[in-house]
Structure formats: structure tokens, C-alpha cells
Design a protein that fits this description.
By secondary structure, the protein is of the alpha+beta class. It has six helices and eight strands. The longest helix is centred in the N-terminal third of the chain and has 17 residues.
């Protein structure tokens, strides 16, 4: 009988081989992979296989484009995510959202906990829920733990948008979508009006018009 680890490796290799030098299909809300708890990565893949998976995930994230991608979003129940954020050119938006450039990195078996009680609410979207965005109140500062793709330990405190990205991607590994945490009255289509709401440095006009609270 094939072991669970062997089945997971076979599935991963099929996804990697199908993507070749291209990208993997991103599964959408309703796919069971997005609602399952990902398996901890404990060496199910050889080093070159892991590197190939990470490369596919980076290419897929950039092509979408997005600032993060978790393995369940390409149908793999593995606790691995990639993140990368070029930042924004609008200085006011960058300041209010504390959105700084995040270099490409890999998170293996990541976990987070609040570093304090402060929360911030901003619009988020998700590659697995295309066409919509909603405000999510998240911890402003979190302690991130886990490993990188080499097995080196991660233990750091992140603030602002980098902390938001980590929370969003780590939630994917727990079977949680951003909509589960969202202010549903803020939900907006990515049309002219919705994009206007989401372009505010802080969604105060959207809060007033749609009737949802923002953290003080």
C-alpha cells in the first residue's frame, strides 16, 4: 500500500511536471484543498523536488499577479507558501498601510501569533477568490515562526503589510480564506466602484458608505 507521504510526493511531482517552465492552475473557492489543513513539511520531497516546487509557486504567484501563494492554492496539501511584494508607488498609501517591499522568500510550516493587541483593517483580495475584495481586520504586528526552504529556523516580528501577507498565506495552510475573517458588508466587486474603495489609503469612505466598522 502506498504511504501518505509517497502519495503526496507523487501529487506534487505531477503538479510540478505539468507546470514545466510555466505556471500551475490556481484553484478557486469551493475546491476542497482550500478547506483542508495542510500537512507539515518534513522532508517528503528531495531537495531538487522542493526547489522545483518553490520555483513553480514563485512563477505562478508572479504571473497571477499576487504577493503570496500557498501550496493549497495549487491543490497541494503542504504547509509551504511563497511571498513577494514590490510595494506601491503611492507614498501616502505606503505610509498608512505600512506597505514596504518584501523580497521573495519561502515559508515552510509557518505559524504566527499576535505581538500585541493592535489591529488594522484594510481591503484584501485573494487569487483563489478572483473578482472581489473585502476589508479584513488583522493583527498589525505578528511573531512569525517556522523554517525557510533550507530548513533554517524563522523567528521574527513583522509589522504592517508584511504581517498581513504572512497572516493571509498562513491562514491558507489552516483551511481558512480571508473571507472567513472579513467584514462582509465591505465585500466589493473589483469594478470601478470597488477599486475606488480599495484604493483609499485607509477604507474610511467605504466604511461610511457600506456600514462596516474599522479598528480604531
Amino acid at each position: 500500500m502506498t504511504s501518505p507521504a509517497a502519495r503526496l510526493r507523487d501529487l506534487t511531482l505531477r503538479v510540478v511536471e505539468a507546470a514545466a517552465e510555466g505556471v500551475a492552475p490556481i484553484v478557486r473557492a469551493g475546491h476542497p484543498a482550500l478547506r483542508a489543513t495542510a500537512q507539515a513539511y518534513d522532508g517528503q520531497l528531495a531537495d531538487d523536488e522542493l526547489a522545483a516546487l518553490v520555483a513553480v509557486m514563485h512563477r505562478t504567484m508572479r504571473h497571477a499577479p499576487g504577493v503570496g501563494l500557498a501550496a493549497p492554492q495549487i491543490g497541494l496539501p503542504l504547509a509551504i507558501a511563497v511571498v513577494e511584494d514590490p510595494g506601491v508607488s503611492d507614498e501616502r498609501v505606503a505610509e498608512v498601510r505600512e506597505r514596504v517591499r518584501v523580497e521573495a522568500r519561502v515559508l515552510v510550516n509557518p505559524a504566527y501569533e499576535a505581538a500585541d493587541d493592535e489591529r488594522a483593517g484594510f481591503y484584501e483580495g485573494c487569487l483563489s477568490v478572483p473578482g472581489y475584495q473585502a476589508v479584513v481586520a488583522r493583527h498589525r504586528r505578528v511573531r512569525l515562526t517556522g523554517q525557510d526552504e533550507t530548513g533554517a529556523a524563522l523567528d521574527e516580528v513583522l509589522t504592517g503589510w508584511p504581517a498581513r501577507i504572512v497572516q493571509h498565506e498562513t491562514d491558507h495552510l489552516r483551511g481558512t480564506l480571508y473571507l472567513d475573517r472579513a467584514e462582509l458588508r465591505s465585500l466589493a466587486a473589483a469594478d470601478e466602484l470597488g477599486l475606488r474603495w480599495a484604493s483609499e489609503p485607509r477604507p474610511e469612505a467605504a466604511s461610511a458608505a457600506l456600514g462596516f466598522p474599522l479598528p480604531s
